[in-house]
Amino acid sequence: MSTNLAASPSSQAQPFGALLREWRQRRRLSQLDLAMDADISTRHLSYVETGRASPSRAMVLHLAEQLDVPLRERNTLLTAAGYAPLYPERKLDDPALDVARQTVDRLLKAHEPHPALAIDRHWNMLAHNQPVLLLMEGIAPELMQPPVNVLRVSLHPQGVAPRIVNLLGWREHLFERLRHQINVSADPVLVELLKELQGYPVPEGVDEHEHIPANAVAVPLQLRTPAGVLSFLSTVTVFGTPIDVTLSELALETFFPADDFTAQAVRHMSDGLAARQQA
Fold first, then answer.
1. SS3 of 29, please?
2. Is the pLDDT of residue 12 over 90?
3. Tell me: domain 9-80, CATH 3.40.710.10, correct?
4. Taking a C-beta distance cutoff of 8 angstroms, is the pair 69, 61 a contact?
5. pLDDT tens-digit map of 57-89
6. Strand 221-225 to strand 251-257: parallel, antiparallel, or no bridges (unpaired)?
7. DSSP codes joined into one string, 148-194
8. I need a surface site. Which of 3, 19, 239, 258 has the fewest CB within 10 A?
9. Which CATH architecture has domain 95-278?
């Protein structure tokens, strides 16, 4: 498993004060709000943003913490302020990440017979368990060329989209997650991905008037299969205290049966897949 995570081009070669102001405005905070949160004077914060004062390394990290800046961009802030990056960025096959990688593999395996996969910050699939293959049957081969982007696979007309019963609801759910991620990270790659996904045509036969049941507690993924319509609820798991950039951007997407029929059907389908692979 590996991933290529490039630095955000929008944040390159900008002075620290300008970057800090962008993050403050992105978090919808005034200078007074941030100064109070960081326990510093508004005048000092203003001087830092305008370049009239140079922050210490500790102050850069303190302000980044108050603004909940992702680790990758904290490195960018440090560099812009004239300091060395603090958080390492390794590939997932780096020996230093052996324990984390083994943890991911165990979690994926333990979730069987239900689907689960690991993704990077751009929604590229890094690893998956065997049941994920059940969700991806019939997908156009070009969509499965590495790196496999799970949002593209899910919503492309030649991907899973034609088999998603509640496509409009599920698509909007994914769009909202992507918008939130863009708001948090300011990642231009995700901005372009959202534009691409929003441009996909809706497959013929999709119910334009679908609605979420009044008693629903979450948006399910309802997938049409030879066994019938399967319904899943998804959860996202992240590492709680990462200090490596790659690890901080890794997420596990796990799918759970939303009803008894799905639980039984998935187990039966998983057993069939295992038998075919052993034959």
1. coil
2. no
3. no
4. no
5. 999 999 999 999 999 999 999 999 999 999 999
6. unpaired
7. PBHHHHHHSTTTTGGGBTTHHHHHHHHHHHHHHHHHHH--HHHHHHH
8. 239
9. 2-Layer Sandwich (3.30)
Q: Are 125 and 159 in contact (CB under 8 A)?
A: no
Tokens linked to 119: 């993704």
As to burial, measured by CB atoms within 10 angstroms (0-12 exposed, 13-18 middle, 19+ buried), residue 105 is middle
In angstroms, the CA 33 to CA 38 distance is 9
Instruction: Quickly count: other Cβ atoms within 10 Å of residue 70's Cβ.
Output: 20
**Three-state DSSP state, 86:** coil
Prediction pTM value: 0.85
Among candidate residues 139, 152, 109, the one with its CA nearest the CA of residue 127: 109
Q: Where in the chain is the domain with CATH 3.30.450.180?
A: 95-278
Cβ-proximal residues to 279 (8 Å cutoff; 6+ apart), any chain: none
Asked which of 71-75, 115-119, 193-197, 270-274 is least confident by mean pLDDT, the reply is 270-274
Residue ranges of the chain assigned to CATH 1.10.260.40: 9-80
Asked if residue 166 lies in contact with residue 155, where contact means CB atoms within 8 angstroms, the answer is: no
Rounded Cα gap, residues 190 and 61, in angstroms: 25
- 3-class DSSP state of 21: helix
Distances (CA, A) of 175 to 103, 159, 192, 221: 29, 17, 12, 14
